[in-house]
Design brief:
Number of strands: 17
Helix content: 25-40%
CATH superfamily of the largest domain: Alanine racemase
Radius of gyration: 23 Å
CATH architecture of the largest domain: Alpha-Beta Barrel
Bound molecules: pyridoxal-5'-phosphate
Strand content: 15-25%
Low-confidence stretches: none
Oligomer: single chain
Structural class: alpha/beta
Length: about 350
C-alpha cells in the first residue's frame, strides 16, 4: 500500500530565520540574543532550528524545559553554547541537566534545594527569577530575599553557582513594562546587597527587546520575532525588517459547484491545528489571488473561488506575503490571537520541509 501524500507541507525558510537572527542581534546589541526554541521551535522543528541558530553564531538557546534542553545537548553542539530551561516539574532529571551544563531558572526555595540535592560533580548554574507582575512563576517580592539567601547558601556549599537574574514581562503596555523594570531593578539591588553577583540579567522577549533599549539588560530572550512572527495590531514582520520563516502550502483537491458559486476544497482542517475561526476571516492564495475561507472542517477547508482554478493548484495558506498570500500576522489580527498560535498548533501530519539557498 502506498502512503497517501501529506495534505500540506510547512516550508521552513532557513535563510529567513538566519536573516531574522542577524536583524535582531544587531537591534539588541550590545545585549546578547537568546534564541527561544520552546514548543519544538514554535512548530518549526527543534533540531534544524537549533543547528541553524548555532551556525549563525547564537550562543544562548532558551528551551523552556529540561527534556528539551537535554535534546539540544544531544545534538552535540560546541561546548560553549548555553542552554536555559526555566519550567520544571518534580519529575525532572536535575542531575542530568546539571551534568549537561544546562542553566536553570528557579523561582522557589524548594527548587533551589531540589537542584542543590542532585548528586553531581559540578555546581548547578542558576538564574533566579523574580515575578515583576506577570504572575507566571517567579518569586514574589516578599519571597525574594529568602530565595536569594537559599541560593547563596547553596553556592557557599559548592552545590550551585549563581549566574543570572531574570523576569518575564507582559509586553502589553509601555507603562506596565516600565513598572516591571523598576521592580526588576529593585530585586537586583536587593540581591546584590545580600552578596549576589550576577553575570547576566534578562527581562525582555521579542516585542520589548526589539523596541526598548532600556529593557535589554545583558540578554534578550526572543522567540516569535526570530520566526518572523510580528506582534500584531497591524504591525507586520516587514515593518520590523523581519521575514516569515514558515509557509503552509497545500493543494486544491476538489472543486465543488454550489449554485453559481465555485468552492475549492483544501485537504486540511482543524484536525491539523487550523482554528475554525479562520472561516469568513482569512483567505487562501491560489495562483497569486486571495480567496476567502468559508468553512474549516476537521480534515478540509472550503474557499470560495473564481474561474481559472484547477485541481492540483498550489494553495498557500500563509507565508511571507510575496506570492499574494496572507502572513501569520494577518491571520492573527483577523482572528484576535497571536501568530505563534498557528505554528505551534500545526499537526504532525504536516511534514516540515527545510529550504535554504
Ligand atoms: C520566559 C520566556 N521568555 C521569552 C519568551 C519568548 O517570547 P516571544 O515569543 O514573545 O519572543 C517566552 C515565550 O513564551 C518565554 O516564556
Amino acid at each position: 500500500m502506498t502512503a497517501a501524500p501529506p495534505p500540506a507541507e510547512a516550508i521552513i525558510d532557513l535563510d529567513a530565520y538566519r536573516s531574522n537572527l542577524a536583524t535582531i542581534t544587531q537591534q539588541v546589541s550590545p545585549a546578547s540574543l537568546m534564541a527561544v526554541v520552546k514548543a519544538d521551535a514554535y512548530g518549526h522543528g527543534l533540531e534544524q532550528i537549533v543547528r541553524t541558530a548555532v551556525t549563525a553564531g547564537v550562543g544562548f538557546l532558551g528551551s523552556l524545559d529540561i527534556p528539551t534542553a537535554l535534546a539540544i545537548r544531544g545534538l552535540d553542539l560546541p561546548d560553549d553554547i548555553d542552554v536555559f530551561a526555566w519550567l520544571h516539574s518534580p519529575q525532572d532529571d536535575f542531575a542530568a541537566a546539571i551534568e549537561s551544563r544546562v542553566d536553570l531558572g528557579v523561582s522557589t526555595v524548594a527548587e533551589v534545594e531540589a537542584i542543590a540535592a542532585a548528586r553531581v560533580q559540578r555546581p548547578a548554574r542558576l538564574h533566579l527569577k523574580i515575578d515583576t507582575g506577570l504572575h507566571r512563576n517567579g518569586a514574589s517580592e516578599s519571597d525574594w530575599p529568602e530565595l536569594v539567601r537559599a541560593a547563596l547558601a547553596a553556592q557557599d556549599r559548592g552545590a550551585v553557582e549563581l549566574r543570572g537574574v531574570w523576569t518575564h514581562i507582559a509586553e502589553a503596555s509601555a507603562e506596565e513594562d516600565t513598572d516591571a523594570m523598576r521592580r526588576f531593578d529593585r530585586a537586583i539591588a536587593l540581591a546584590e546587597g545580600l552578596g549576589a553577583v550576577f553575570e547576566v540579567r534578562h527581562l525582555a522577549a521579542s516585542a520589548a527587546g526589539f523596541q526598548r533599549a532600556d529593557s535589554r539588560y545583558d540578554l534578550v530572550r526572543v522567540g516569535a520575532f526570530t520566526y518572523g512572527i510580528a506582534p500584531g495590531g497591524g504591525i507586520g514582520p516587514a515593518d520590523l525588517g523581519l521575514v516569515p520563516v514558515m509557509s503552509l502550502v497545500s493543494r486544491v483537491s476538489e472543486i465543488l459547484s454550489h449554485g453559481d458559486q465555485l468552492r475549492a476544497v483544501i485537504p486540511l482542517g482543524y484536525g491539523d491545528g487550523l482554528p475554525s475561526e479562520l472561516a469568513g476571516r482569512a483567505s487562501v492564495a491560489v495562483r497569486g489571488q486571495r480567496y476567502r475561507i468559508i468553512s474549516v472542517e476537521v480534515d478540509r477547508l472550503l474557499a470560495e473561488v473564481g474561474d481559472g482554478i484547477a485541481i492540483g493548484d498550489a494553495a498557500v495558506l500563509f507565508g511571507s506575503g510575496t506570492a499574494g498570500e496572507e502572513t501569520l500576522q494577518e491571520w492573527a489580527d483577523a482572528t484576535g490571537t497571536i501568530g505563534e498560535e498557528f505554528v505551534v498548533r500545526l499537526g504532525s501530519r504536516i511534514p516540515r520541509r527545510y529550504v535554504s539557498d
